[in-house]
Structures are given as structure tokens and as C-alpha cells.
Amino acid sequence: MAESIVSNVAGKLGELLIKEVNYLQGVDGELRSLRDEFQWIQAFLKDADVSILEGNERAKIWVNQVRDVSYDAEDVIDTYIFKIHQHRRGSHGCLFSSLMTTYACHPCGLTILHDLGNKIGEVKRRAVEISANRSKYGIESIGAPSSGSLNNEARLPLSWKQTPVVEEVDVIGFDEHVKTLVQLLLAEDEDRRAVISIVGMGGLGKTTLAKKVSSDPRIKQHFNCHAWVYVSQAYTSRGLVESIFKELMAVDKVMMMNESIAKLADGELKKVVYEYLKERKYLVVIDDIWFREAWDNIKEVLPAEMLNGSKVLLTTRNRDVALHADRQSHPFDLKFLGEEESWELFLKKAIPTKCAEHCPPNLEEIGRQMVAKCNGLPLAIVVLGGLALRKEQSEEEWRKLLKSVSWQLREGEDQISNILALSYHHLPYYLKPCFLYFAMLPEDSSLINANRLTLRWIAEGFIEARDEETMEEVAEEYLEELVHRSLIQVAERNVLGGIDVCSIHDRLLDLAISEAKGMNFILVIKNNSEGNIVTLQKTRRLALHGDKSWDVAQQYPTDSARSLRTITFFGTKWWERDINTDSLCGKCIRKMWYNLACVLFFASLLIAGPRALVSFQKPRILIGMNLLRVIDLRGVTIILPKTIGELIHLRYLNVQVGRTKSIPSSIGELTNLQTLQIQNKYSTTKLPSAIWKLQSNLRHLECGDSCSIKGQPSADSLPNLQTLSSIKAGKWLNTGLLEKMINLKKLSICGICNSYGKALDSLGKLNNLIELELTSEDEHEIPTSILTASHQKHLRLLRLKGKLERLPEVNTQSLLTNLIKLTLEFSELKEDPLVTLGKLDNLQVLVLGLNAFIGKEMVCLERGFPQLKELDILFLISLEEWKIEEEAMPRLRKLTIARCVELVMLPHGLGKITSLQELHVSNMPSAFTQRLRANDGDDWHKVRHIPLLEVTDLDLED
């Protein structure tokens, strides 16, 4: 971790010397000397990390000192850059009005340089002293390089993406457990609502087992209502009920906005959930419940008097909680794995080949000794296997790993913590900050958006471009490497094979939090934070968990947050009204600070202090937070202040804006901004023409809903943009700019009409474009010509929302040729789309949405759709007949049919598609669903081979 910080500082010093070469007269020598010192320290740090791993306190103290002085150096550099920017803006160009006048000659410039020189000199003195301490205290000999150095291990092999990964669901020895629990849940002889509890310590796989059980096809079919609720230690009564409500509504496709939920009082919300469940056979999974009181809150909304076989599946570490929930059901105690089960699981991770069960004879004895240290805990075994996977399969390397595991061995639960901590210490330096970043997550953040995570890593400076790879590609590889090391789990992959959603086990989250403490990496403030307020001095990241965390944050000293680089808020509904910081007087602000604690965010943005709000007096906690790199406040509705442009170090901005006011033009001064994500509460949000000034650094511009951009771009605007999402078509589109955005990978434009046809023809020239979404304006058609764009070989995902005259013939020049996923909505095609689309050899997912086809008959021709895995037919209200010919869709695994109200029956050919694993039928007429009744339905023979079958009537939904 320290090496990553030092590397970042050394890089910044080098950049500063290059960019400001003309204005650093008198201090450039000191800067070069300090950079050299940090480079020497960096060269030594890998070995120092080994010393820490071996328990040497001297090395640990030394690394802590290195980290602190590195933080100080980074603050000095970033503060200097901020002051320079402020001075240049305030001078209105007077510094450069004459070629004879240099920055160093200006009185204010001299003051800034003098201040920089003093601070750099102090940092250098400390850095030299710390370097000298290596020899003085014998640290140099402790950290002698060795060929087996834990942090000198090679990076993942080039074939790592093809290496099988044992996911969390592949834990050995669960088959019998699943069988037993499924039988308990399917039992119909109950005269009550039973609660089945899975009990065991953290890391045994309780959640994994619950997932396997609840996803079993027999369970899916048996219960017509499902919900999964994660509880954790930091639950709230209201939050639990809302979670159940949202889960149920999502499953049954009933739409209700969050605003509607918020209007319901607690009692009303409980009643809604109770009444909804009362007439249904439900299965509710309550995961990771710690306290009796949590169950008492939950059971109020779970009807018990309807004796229809409804069940609750509960996971907990506390046996008392399980007995409290249901004393008539014996808790299912999840045991540790046996010796052979543990060995088998370890081999799946350590040697993931087709012959994993055959361990090299010379390694088996050493391997079994290592596995024995885990005492049958699956999580520890999986992590240990991930460590072994990174090592050369030799006796020497495995013995070194065994020695490390043995050194960590202690009694009781500490043993598991230390084995898991070993996985962190074995990480190469470039992965350590990426793993520690998970420490900012709340306990109940079971699912993490992978794209948002990796973009933040980039903004934090954790990622560097490598050879011809982009920083985004390197970040994705880092995430995959954490997965391969079993520190992170994959929850969902996209059709391209990349990670869409990931998760972290609670024990590993505890590890990240534990390791982040004491190194100023992050400070987490929670609703229930108590005790003495510690200083924020040098703390790099602040994470706020829950609405009340703002109240706690206000207690911090005024000037203690000047080193913060990141602010993240996890929570919703913290304030119901929009915040307009440009129209508030000081008295109003002070009132809101003490009553609503809402100043935390916008005070940080009002960098100018008295110049922006003269009356702003007491709540000064975050005034002067000039060094922010990341602001992620997507749970808060705000209006960005005019002073947003002051945050020149900002690289990532994710906010939800309110009302209809435009984004301030000063955003164009954020020249370092890489990612701008605007969640607009109202669809009329406008981006200023200053957006075009962001130039080369902006890489991702995303809007939650459609945003328009004012003004005209220049010829070289946004050349490195990779994502342009949910932007309205406008004059900018006809400037020829689109074809110059050669780095675009994801493009989403709405408001398309025929007049933009020529501009859209240039899409064929964007050879890096992978994902494209176009939405037409009202009744306008999407120009068919774009589908025949030549030279477009990389497009994989296409979504078209709007009228299409027709689909083009499939040929080697078609934009459709290499598609993996295609979504059509409102296309109003009159010709059968399946005839054309069935010829796409690479298509894996096809979604035909509302009125995509307005004809009466569709046919999957013989041998059509050779690679299709998922097909959704939704809201085709004119469709009456669907035919499937021989050998069509041979790889189809999932089929969804919804609200095709005129469709009479399933096609006869469906029964011959043996690959089909899931069929979801919803909102269909009773006449259609009756044909699917088990055993006696007219279409039962077509679907009886499908493991998972879900059917709901249109009549029931209405």
C-alpha cells in the first residue's frame, strides 16, 4: 500500500517539473531531489512489505512514516497547483500580458514559490531522515530481496481470462445440504408458517447455501412469491420493510416509485406488504440477521395465519436468533468441511485445470498441511487456494506459503482473520489500494456496480495506462485479478463476459476495514457513530453511511478535512427538497446546518469562502477542501453551485441534480475531470456549452435521463471520450464531431430524426464503438441507413427505440453482423424480424420490446439463431402465431414472454429445444396460461422438460 502512495507522489513530482518548468525557478532543484528520494524509497518498499508480513515492528513503523511523509508531499504539490490556478484566474491574464513578464517575477507568484520551497524543503528533510533510518535501525538487512518475495510475484499470466474460476456458489459439500433444505421448504404438511434457519460462523457459506437453495428450480416453481432481504448489524426497522416491499414489487413487475414509498407511514407500509403476501404462497429469505429485535420487526409483515405452505429461510451467526424466530423448527447447523472436502475445494482454486483432483505428488503433503490450518472454513480455504494459484507449483514456493500460514495461526476466530489477512499482504502493491477501497462500503451493499467502481479507481490514481491498454482496461483486469484471488465475488457478468456486478464477503469487508484503519486511507461515518470525534487530518477519503451521518460529520474541527480527496454518500431521502446554494443567505445556511446537517456537501464546494458567502461563519468543517478528486453523492438531490469550477483537481463527479436549472458553466473549468455522471431528477437538465471545453481529459459523460448540450463544439472537442450516454441530438451532431470521437466505446443518443441521418452515417467510422443506443424523436423514424454502415466491425450491443422502416439484409457490410445483443422497441416493423435476425451468427441475446413488430405471425426459420441464448418477446400486442422450424435456436437457455395478449399458444418446435433451462410467462391471458398447466395442459408436453417454469395470468395482475 505504501509503495502505491510513494509511486503516485514520485509521478506527480515528475509531472509538475515538466508542466511548470518555466515557473519553478529556484525550487526546481529541490523538487528533483525530492523526486529522486521517493524513487529510492519506492525501490525498497516491496521488501519492507515482506518484513511487515513477517511481523517486524521496526519495518512497520518505518513504512508508516513513509506513508505520512508521502501524504504531506502530495498535499504540498496539489495545494500549489490549486493556488496557481486561483492566481491565474484572479489575475485576468495580467501575468502573461507581456512576454517579458514571467510568473516568478510577479509578487504573488514569488510568495507562492517561496511557500512551496519552504514546504518542499521540510518534506525533503523528513524523507532523507526516514531513508537514513533504514540503515540506522537495521531495516535494510531485514528487507533484503529474495526470489520468493511475496510482493515480487508475477502478474497474472496472459491466459488468465481463460483460467476457470471457482465462484462462491461452487463450494464443495453443499449438495446434501441443498437437498435437505429444499425438502424442508417444500413440505406441505405444516399447519403454520415455518421458519427454516441456517446457523454458523462467518465464512462457512450460509449465504451461499441459501442462494443455492432459493434458486433451485423446484423452489422457484413451488412458491409464487419470492423476496431476499439482507439485514446486517446496522439495520433499521423501516429499511427492512422497504427492502421486502421492493423485492416483492420487482419480482411481480409491479411499478411503484420511491417517492410513493416515502409518502407511506411505517404502519401503512407494513400493511401494504402484509396484505400483498396474505393471499400468496411466499418464500422470504432473511440473510445475515443478528438480533431478535430485527426478526420481531420483520415478522409483523409476514402473514402466519394463512396455512398455504409459505416459508421463511433465515441465515444467522446467532443460534438464539434462530430459536427465537421458530422454536418448533430445529436450526440447520452448517458444519465445517471435512478433510477431503477441504482438500477438494482447495485444489479447485489452487490448480483449476481439468485434472484438478490430481495434485502433483511432491506438493500434496505440503498442500494438505496448509489446508489443515483453515480448519474446514470454506472462505479461508478458497482464499488460501487463490494465494497458491499465484505461486509457482514448486515445493520451495508452497513451503514458503505454508510458513506464512503457520506464522499466522492462532486459536479461535482470530485464526480465520489472520489467514484472510494473509491474502491482503500477498497482494502486489498495485492491487492493495483497490482492495482497501471496498472499506468504504456499508455492510448491506451486497452488490457493487463494477463500472462505477473501476472509474473511481482511475480517478483516485490507482490505475496507470499500460502499453496500449487504456486505464479502463487495466482497471477491469485489476478487478478480475481480485476475483481470481477470491477476495471479490462476481454477482453478474454481461453478455461480453465482463463483470457487471460484484460483491464482497462480509468477513473480507471486515478485513478491508481493519487494514484501512490506522493508515488514513478512509474514514467511515455511520448513523450510529459514537464516541470521541477524531481528527480528519490527512484522511484521504470520507464515506457517509445513512442520513444521520451528516449530523455526526458536522462535529469535526473546521480545518481538519483539507487533505480529503474523496467524499461518498451512501443513503437516500436525506433531504426531501432541492438544495440551491447560490440563493441562500448565511443565516439560512447556518439554520440548515444545525437543523438538517445539509451543508457538508455544498460547503466543500464553496472554496472561495468569504468571497462566495460572506455571512458563512460557524459551520466551516469543509471550507477549503480544495483537493477533492472524487465526489459521489448520487443519493442526494442538489443544484450544483456556480463555484464548482474551483475544484480543479476533481476527476470524478456523480450527482443527482434537481429542478430545471442548467449545470453551471464553471464546470468547463474542471480540466482534470475524467468522469461526469449526472442523475437528473427532471428530464429538462441542460449541460452548458462549456462542456466542450473539457477537452482531452473527459472520458465518460453519462446522464441518467436525457440531457441536452448547449453551444457548438470545436473541431477538437472531447477527443478521448469513451462514453457519451443519454445525450439529446442537437446542432452539435451536424458539426461532424461524431466521426472525430474515434475512442467512443459506448454511445447513447435520443431525439433522433431523419435530419440527422447523414451525421449518423459516420458511425461506421467509429471502429472502437462497442455499444450503441438510439432513440427517435416522437413519430420520427430511425434512419435505416445507419444499419448498413460499413467498416463497423466492433459493435456488439445495439438498442434501437423508435420506428424502423425495415431491417437491412444481413451481409458482411451490415452494422448488425457482429452483434451479440440486440434490443428493438417501438420499431413497428411490418415484416417478420426473425427471418432476418435469425441469420446473425453471433447473436446471443434478442429483445423484441413494445411494438417492435406489429404483424401477426413470426417464424424462426430452420437452423436460425445458431448462437442465441436468451430471447425476450414483450408487449407484441398484435402477435397471434409463432413458429419454430427444425434445428432453430439450438443453444437457447432462457425464454421470456410477456403481455402478448393475442398469442394463442407456444410454438410446437419449442419442445425440441432441449437446451432451454428457463421459461418465464407473465401477464398473459388465462387461455394461454391454462395450456401450460402441469400434466393436463394442452402445451404441457412442450415445456415439461424445462427445469424452471414461471407463469402468471394477465387476469391476476389486473
Automatic annotation (TrEMBL):
Keyword set, alphabetical order: Cytoplasm, Hypersensitive response, Leucine-rich repeat, Nucleotide-binding, Plant defense, Repeat
Gene3D superfamilies membership: 1.20.5.4130, Helical domain of apoptotic protease-activating factors (1.10.8.430), P-loop containing nucleotide triphosphate hydrolases (3.40.50.300), Ribonuclease Inhibitor (3.80.10.10), Winged helix-like DNA-binding domain superfamily/Winged helix DNA-binding domain (1.10.10.10)
Domain Disease resistance protein winged helix: 447-512
Locations listed in the record: Cytoplasm
Keyword Cytoplasm: yes
UniProt key word Phosphoprotein: no
Gene Ontology molecular function: any one: ADP binding
Domain of life the protein comes from: Eukaryota
Domain NB-ARC: start-end pairs: 175-354
CDD domains: RX-CC_like (cd14798)
Domain Disease resistance R13L4/SHOC-2-like LRR, chain residue ranges per copy: 625-922
All residue ranges annotated as the Disease resistance N-terminal domain in the record: 5-89
One BP annotation, GO: plant-type hypersensitive response
Function: Confers resistance to late blight (Phytophthora infestans) races carrying the avirulence gene Avr1. Resistance proteins guard the plant against pathogens that contain an appropriate avirulence protein via an indirect interaction with this avirulence protein. That triggers a defense system including the hypersensitive response, which restricts the pathogen growth.
Record family assignment: Belongs to the disease resistance NB-LRR family.
Protein's UniProt name: Disease resistance protein At1g50180
